[in-house]
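To close the chapter, one final illustration. This time we ask the reader to focus less on the individual chains and more on the assembly as a whole: which components sit near each other, and how the overall shape emerges from the parts.
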Amino acid sequence: STVWAPSAPPPGSPASTHCPGSRLACIKEPLYHPTMQIFLIQLINLFVCFIAQDVTYFCPFIGALSGTVLVTNYRLFFRCMDREPAFVLDLPLGVVSRVEKIGGASNRGDVSYGLVCKDMRNLRFAHKQMEDTLRKSIFEVLVKFAFPVSNGLQIYAFEYGQVFPENGWKVYDALSEYKRQGIPNESWRITKVNDHYEVCDTYPSTLAVPVNIPDEELKRVAAFRAKGRIPVLSWIHPESQATVTRCSQPMVGVNGKRSKEDEKYLQAIMDANAQSHKLFIFDARPSVNAAANKMKGGGYESEDAYQNAELVFLDIHNIHVMRESLRKLKDVVYPNIEDSHWLSNLESTHWLEHIKLILAGALRIADKVESGKTSVVVHCSDGWDRTGQLTSLAMLMLDGYYRTIRGFEVLLEKEWLSFGHRFQLRLGHGDKNHTDADRSPVFIQFIDCVWQLTRQFPAAFEFNEYFLVTILDHLYSCLFGTFLCNSEQQRFNVRTVSLWSYVNSQLEEFTNPMYVNYSNHVLFPVVSLRHLELWVGYYIRWNPRMRPQEPVHQRHKELLAKRAELQKRVDELQREVTNRSASSSSERTGSPTRSITPVQTFV
Amino acid sequence: MFSVKPTKPTFRSYLPPVQTDVKKTIESPPKKVEPKLLQGEIVVNEVNFVRKCLSADSSQEGLWGKLICTNFKVSFIPTDPPSEQKSHLSHLLLGLHDIPLTCLEQVVTVNDTKGKKKVLGSNQKLKFNPTELILYCKDLRIIRFCFVEAGPESAKKVCLAIAHYSHPADLPLLFGFEYQGRRYHDSKVNDRGGLRTPIFDRPSDWDREIKRTGASEWRVCSINENYAISPSLPEHIVVPVSLADQDLKQNSIYFMNQRIPVWCWNHPNGSALVRMASIADPLQQRRIDQRFIPAITKSHPQRSEVIRSDLDKCLPNIQDLQSIFQMCVNNSFEESEERWLSSIENTRWLEYVRAFLKHSAEMVYLLDGKNTSVILQEEEDRDLNCVVSSLVQLMLDPHYRSLVGFQSLVQKEWVMAGHRFLDRCNHLKKNDKDESPLFMLFLDCVWQVMNQYPAAFEFTETYLTVLSDSMWIPLFSTFLFNSPKQRAQYLMDFAKNKAIPQGEDQLVYFPPVWDWSQQYSTADQTLFNNPMFVGKGAACVQNGEVKTFRRTKVHNTLLQLGLCFICMFTYFSTFSTSASVDFEPLFDGLPSW
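The assembled structure is written out below.
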């Protein structure tokens, strides 16, 4: 029974030493299959756990395909050689949400199992039952390596040791990002009060807070905010000094508890901006939900307690509603689309409505800060889901830096990773408990909102659609460490490769050729449902009929090359002009009587 | 023929300043609450203290100003214009708040307090003082003006004037005839040389097409010179080499409108695309078949078979199209935001778009995959045939995906083929039964293909939008007539009336829309160019996977109206999975040439 897979091999051991010989299961060499060597040598510390021939993959679009399956500790690889070009399915096991046996009685002699995936697809395989142990084993291998956490194994990202020219972990440094924003300044300071995550274990160690609130008071504010997530600076307007700050809900409770420190603190945030005598508190939740939270000790700021503050509810639903909406969307788009009711079916998922509410909320925040020159405080319940969506989207609208590739990486590192969006919990990396109520597509929704922005402002973003899809792919793949763990503290001692190492080593793949770097360009998207569209390139990309007839990716690269070439030519000409005018001016001084037409450059 | 010096700003004075004009424009900034008038344009009526509603809720904020009716447009001039907001395209002939009278679909007056509402036509009376005027536009805008603060009598007069002037009694009363006459005399216009788009009014244009497509077994035939045979075909047509003029003449009587089979396009493999009207007398069917079909077969290098597709039998008729389009217009704006998608679905417009694309893709399959010549047959050969024949060519021939190529395609398959633009657009608002948004449907289909092949077209969505907007500006010869014959007749009379020298080229004294410098500056025209375009010779469009669904965004607004009342007409298109399944494998790897 130890035929198939090695039992928990030590990381780093070469595959060959861990495969006891067997007809099906094991391979002596990692390069066993000529068609499969490509990927085997690409991944470090990968070992083959299982290989089986004559497996049928039931493709919902092509039909049944017969081929070879190979399972490693990172991925499932299926190849069908009967077709030209060969059909290949390459699936990181991290996307698998659950593995299920599909009945055996109906398909006599066949073993069938299905993979429900987190990335909007379901896969079904079958093979002839050769011996009783076989069925169990394939199933076991998949379950084992798709859910390493549940099986006491390591997630593959910890094994993957690929070295890239750039170290993506260096992309974000909190101090330099605050410095870029002009912090510290006369109103805001950097505090190290959370250096050892004592005040708040889900917050980053570096925080920016109002100058006149000492660290001791911060701790008292933390006592009044859920999970100790005090209001801290996310972004400051370079001109008006209006700020976007984020936090969790106040612990008001049924009795309407107040905190002098918290009130004073919000006053300090308002005072830090001389342009406005008001403070807007955006509560992401529907007001009913916010009120219901009082029963659990939470709640929202009363306008009586917080003078000059105005509270606005943004009506964005909770993680459970969003999860249900995406589930419905998957039903509508995968595998087949019912053409005659496509639009009304899409409407009934309410997915775009949720996207709209999030974008509308972020727009109100951006508008308050930019047009109203007023500081805003954003929170939901815990301040790690909807709050992150809102602050990062508003920052994306307000600050062109975040629309560059590196800037966007910084934005994710800052607003999502360092501020403790619970990626591990929301996505359930390597965890077999697929019904976990903590799972929710909060981050996917955010990326969808970003995609909507790129549709409305095609020249405002340095990155392309492929960049966003790549981020979502590696959100699940567990190849990189970027989206593992729940907080900065948990990520602290972890040795993995950053997704940005990979991305930044091949920027041309992710660059939008239409990008124009406008300075001080604030984006105010139209958030009507009439302007939002379903992100077909992500949600329905498995359906070959929904793919673009003519992929534009290659064309984008050509345009980039063309642009680089032209830029080079411009530089050359400029140099020539500079040289010429330098030599002509020397000539002029030499012979002042000669008239020379001055050369002008228009850049 | 320079008339009295106009006191109001002339057409020229607000053209984007040419370098020599710089001083002049600086001296007189057009700050006053005065309409900008074109040559020959006169103010009919005007009313002050009008509020233009900027949102659907008329009680909400708006823009105050003066509402003016001229013999060309409805103009609104804000007293306190909001700070210059440069929209990405600025029209040279129309201001931000201008609506050409031809663009009006319905003029509705409302009296809120009395709860009265009346749709106004020509020469009508109005028994109540309107508190509100609602203009339903053909480009899908709905514009509302409020008269609460305005003089009731002058408000009423303006409403009646707008209604009256938007229902011209006769074609030559359309403002274009006045305008182009003045323009011809006032400005030294250049010759046709500036126009790069072939017009297909002379044999050489057809000859070039024959050569370009390698249709050596086809010839230009001029039997219809002076429209001697058919009143709706162009003067020069292309027919099989094996058919003699005499033969064609004799047989022409059996076709509706005498529209015999004429050549549209040749595939490099030799198959031809041909269009024709139905045979008027069914008893003659065999005789005609025996005459024409062998001739078309003979013109194919492999003598391949010919397939005839009767579009009347497989595509929706034009009345259905019109009613669905109306539904689309009415529903989509009134439905709530949350019900947007299903209200679009309910109109079924996209099903129609799909039907046309699908049928065209099937024809593409026959021509390209099956190597057969195709005859498109329609009762009159002037509506559905235009859509399908131009879509087929667009899918198969990259030449037509260039800007000039596309314009020549519209010229060849729509304008010269006798599509009844005058009736289908209902410019004179005389016969609602004939109105149908066929050209709009065609542009939508092009948009759909364009979205599936973002790098295959030289032109952009912006171009398609301004082209569709131009349909409602009555200044260009392209969309004003039902046939080349009608155009020739009207323009001959026009030339006589306006003392235009005999022998002058029609294109010079009454230019088509293709001379875009009439409407947009050179800088703005660059927005027609698709930066993604890979150039001619790119891979073939439409591999038969007509199954992608897409969102269409036809801002059917004049683009400069972005500021005031944008009616976004957004919808998705779904393509059925069942019907084209048979074609799928065969469409793989179409040749690129």
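The interface with chain B takes residues 336-337, 339-344, 346-347, 352-353, 513-514, 528-531, 533, 536, 545-550, 552, 555, 558-559 of chain A (CB under 8 Å). Residues 1-42, 589-603 of chain A have pLDDT under 50 and may be disordered. With these observations in hand, you are ready for the problems at the end of the chapter.
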